[in-house]
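Thread: Modeling a multi-component assembly for a lab meeting

Hi all, long-time lurker, first post. My supervisor asked me to bring a structural picture of a complex we are working on to next week's group meeting, and I have zero experience with this. I have the sequence lines for every component (890 residues in total). Could someone generate the structure of the whole assembly? Inputs are pasted exactly as I received them:
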Amino acid sequence: MRPSPALLTDRYELTMLQAALADGTAHRRCVFEVFTRRLPPGRRYGVVAGTGRLLEALADFRFGSAELDWLADEGVVDDRTLAYLADYRFTGSMVGYAEGEVFFPSSPVLVAEGTFAETVLLETLVLSVLNYDSAVASAASRMSSAAVDRPCLEMGSRRAHEEAAVAAARAAVVAGFSATSNLEAGRRYGLTTIGTAAHAFTLLHDDEQEAFAAQVSSLGADTTLLVDTYDVRRGVERALAAAGTGLGAVRLDSGDLGGLAADVRHQLDAAGATGTKIVVTSDLDEFAIAALAVAPVDAYGVGTSLVTGSGAPTCGMVYKLVAREGADGEMRGVAKASRDKTSVGGRKSAARRLDADARAVAEVLVGGPDERVRSWRPGPDDGTLRALHVPLVTEGTIDPQWVGADGVRAAARRHRASRDELPRGARRLSADEAAVPTVTLALQG
Amino acid sequence: MRPSPALLTDRYELTMLQAALADGTAHRRCVFEVFTRRLPPGRRYGVVAGTGRLLEALADFRFGSAELDWLADEGVVDDRTLAYLADYRFTGSMVGYAEGEVFFPSSPVLVAEGTFAETVLLETLVLSVLNYDSAVASAASRMSSAAVDRPCLEMGSRRAHEEAAVAAARAAVVAGFSATSNLEAGRRYGLTTIGTAAHAFTLLHDDEQEAFAAQVSSLGADTTLLVDTYDVRRGVERALAAAGTGLGAVRLDSGDLGGLAADVRHQLDAAGATGTKIVVTSDLDEFAIAALAVAPVDAYGVGTSLVTGSGAPTCGMVYKLVAREGADGEMRGVAKASRDKTSVGGRKSAARRLDADARAVAEVLVGGPDERVRSWRPGPDDGTLRALHVPLVTEGTIDPQWVGADGVRAAARRHRASRDELPRGARRLSADEAAVPTVTLALQG
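Re: Modeling a multi-component assembly
Sure thing. I ran the full set together rather than chain by chain. Output:
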């Protein structure tokens, strides 16, 4: 039994619900759109992640007696609102970018439709999940891209909130990482877990040789030995003495990783351990990974910079009301007027325009009358448009393909395909604008 | 029933345990120390937070059949290790800085003692909790300090992982915030929750006047009306028309907040609404708060920059083995040799040296033989030393004073006292070194 996520919610969502139930507007049909106004400085694309986790949480989003009693005791909302919450379940619909897709400024990555009452309650949950997971995936994609064919291993749990760490491991795998050190992420999402020993294991023993012997004896010669507790050269000698030339790997966690890796590779090869791999860890980010491209490194372990989004620890996604039913029963687009926080009213669909080589050339936002946008699909004359919205929730029913371990595997495949579609040069790490422009296609009424 | 946190753990902790159980070193007594090598660039102090959450999680840290079955199915560890885990509970001891205390580079904020087996398993959980919560509290303290007597309100849930958001709200309150928008944080930790309406509520209605009337009718005239959906001046007029001069507050969420606040204050006062407060929100951080000191603002709502640590989204705390029993049964200090990641071996206690005005002048690390350090207390000749270590867990028993809502309230009081003890000038926001130097006091054997 998971605890209910229903109170992972900002108080104003419930007070708005109360006021809207009182004046009858709570039952107006609404369309909320999730998008980001800009990418982090220098970033060329973002990666949608967390969709599966969001849908898993949505399935559990119920106000049970524990939640209702607390809300009543605190006087957060009135009795009519409590009665509404007691029966709450989301019966609306959501479409959005499939998890793993890349996105750009203004991309409508999620569109939620339902009554005001049922959609307004989801703002915080939707944004918490998508903002964090997408921030991690967006950083992870740059790292796995910089690593080219070498595996990236997620090891950042200790530098993130303990539950965020599980989500970070999942998002990293969506965006190209091979495995994680986090056991709970392995259990929940079927991810491959990795890890052998820390410096503490060496220091626990009276000397390094004893520690390596104990590790090899228990975990086998194909384990990874951490060789930099004292002196790397002596560490490698002792590692080979303990495991022989069948040693799986050595790990370097400090110092000049590129220079050390070259020395260690030479030492291993000279000893005949040509199959022994070199894993490097120690405050790596996408730039450090790229800089190690010419070093004889076999895998990268990444921690802090991954789980904190490599300088962009959250996406700036917002959940905005873009259309709602009026007193006349008609849907109409709405937007606030602020100059510094622009929104474009009205429901939008989205597609990626591809060139003859199947490379993205533009992010196309499809706007117009609500019903036309809602049913829009690229037509025969739109051969170069790939539609981006997929159904996630249909009248309250969550499509099971997006959740669980299967959802993560599919998202990882989708991310590779989506990233491969980016224009040549879009994966360079140098700071630049969004890889493709965002343009608008206006459907007529 | 909370899910077990036992797998919120890096795999290598379990593989080290397996190897250490096999060679008998698992039962050596060990001392692990949590500290950070440096503060984020420009920061003058950090704030310990998360201690209460950590102890709550420690109480639940058990390997149940679900966890054991998964570990067995995945072949993570052998049967002997599974048997050990099945009976696992932490029977060791922890001392540390009380939650809310400020800290500096090398401050031993937590010291865990027990067998290698029982202490090594806690590394990831300890660091995940302390690194995230302390990062948020360290940022929050600068914000609440910059706000002086004006309340700071935590509103960042949407920009953090959904469970991290709860921890962030708690950490913010530890470090001087008054309230949070997050309902779950209110429920778990007895925090005051706040919030009334978003732009969506105004946009839901056919016009702003209707929206304000509905809100006032449902939530009362002392509610906070968000007045910047269309035009602020017209918004304030409508707010007063709806609520009268008894209106609780108006909120500004965009534009030039300082200029707008002055205009709105003038408009409110001219209308006789001299008691109506002005709340500002919109990407505030400690610098923006400081810049608004001369504006007629009554409260600050802070989101993104708070929950992401205002540029430092994690503390760099590490969990290092600093002493362990040898084959001879004696405790000895240990440390790895790396030049870029220095550690100082041996158990350490800590105290803050105060001057005659009770202002901190140094962070004193107390080192020496294990037993002397362990029992060290400032003596009569150490009148200016305030000891910083308090017992958190004694032979497996968690001291209840640190957990739950009481723990948060006490931590918030303690933080105010600890911050007030900083040298004059240490609370300036300009980039500088740690506010006091860290020095060492060596006890003789």
